[in-house]
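sorry to bug you again but im stuck and you know this stuff better than me. below you get a single protein, a line of residues and a line of whole numbers that encode the local backbone shape. mainly i need to know what kind of three dimensional shape the backbone takes. anything you notice is useful, everything is just below:

***
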Amino acid sequence: SDLRQMLATKSVENIQFLPFLTTDVNNLSWLGYGCLKQDWTLITVNTIGAALQTLYILAYLYYSPAKRPVLLQSLLLLAVLAAGYGYFTVLIADVQMRLARLGLFCSVFTISMYLSPLADLAKIVRTKSTCCLSFPLTVTTFLASTSWTLYGLQLHDPYITVPNVPGIVTSVMRFWLFWRYPPGRDKPYRPLHA
């Protein structure tokens, strides 16, 4: 829906960039973990996720009036990803150790992805407006984090289970914010009387 809004308005107003950037890096990291573990569920889902997030980033960059901060944030996280890839493929020879460290690396990114929409929490409470939060993204995050938590429990993989629990918690917090500060209340216009 955010991509549709950008295409319709040719603007990125009221759309956060950081959650989608961290999600893209998160997908690429988990794709590496899935390849190392040879888990086709992780590989398939994260390949599709990375492709969609990259499309979103390109659209955001195209419609953003301030391209420099968007490019710098993207390049910084890509540099972290490239450094991580180099570290895991060159410096760690043992496959089990690589899997454990990559799992920890992915877990940290997943937690940061789930916490990033809450960066505007003070602004939301101060303005009593949820216009900077995406309700469809909140629903999707809740469903995805719940699904991955259950999948991790089924596989007995703490690297999948543990970092997805904060996604459930932060989604519930955002649902509460949408309930507390409904999006329709903050419209800057008054209805005309007939």
Notes: The two ends are 33 Å apart (CA to CA). The domain at 1-91 is CATH 1.20.1280 (Monooxygenase).
